Amino acid sequence: MKQFSPVAMTIAVLSLGVTAQAETQSLKNQLVGSWSVERNCEEFQDGKKNCSPFGDNMKGLLMFDANSFSFQMIAGDRAKTNDPRTPVGPLVAYFGTYSVDEANKVLTYHIVRATWPNFEGQDQKRIVTINGDQMSYKSQAPISSPQGPFVPNLEFKRIK
Length: 160
Prior knowledge:
Blueprint (H helix, E strand, L loop, with lengths): L5 H19 L2 H5 L1 E12 L4 E2 L8 E6 L4 E7 L15 E11 L4 E9 L8 E9 L2 E6 L10 E9 L2
Antiparallel strand pairs: 1-2, 1-3, 1-9, 3-4, 4-5, 5-6, 6-7, 7-8, 8-9
């Protein structure tokens, strides 16, 4: 029978513990940190999909802290303006608090202030999947727009 060195056995046992810890980490703990937006597709009820609603140069940031505060901003190409208080071009941003339904893997934003006033005071739910440093989420309910109701489906990468 082949024998393993004590060092090899220790490494094997410790690596099992790290894997188990990552798998049992709560959704809330996995969310905490900063995420860059990698993809944003809007899925319309008529079956159409728009995967570049902010243009080809979309940039976005999503942040969660351990005290349940969140911030999200997604912007496309924007024109210059002389007034720093007036956003120009495609932009969605909001902040507030968040809560997590661990059993159903649902994130709920409790929006305090937003670039679109209709979001303010709303609770918006997202179905979340996290795999290491990759996250995706999809809205549980459609969002109204002039082009028709759509469900946003976003993909993120953890910023390190």
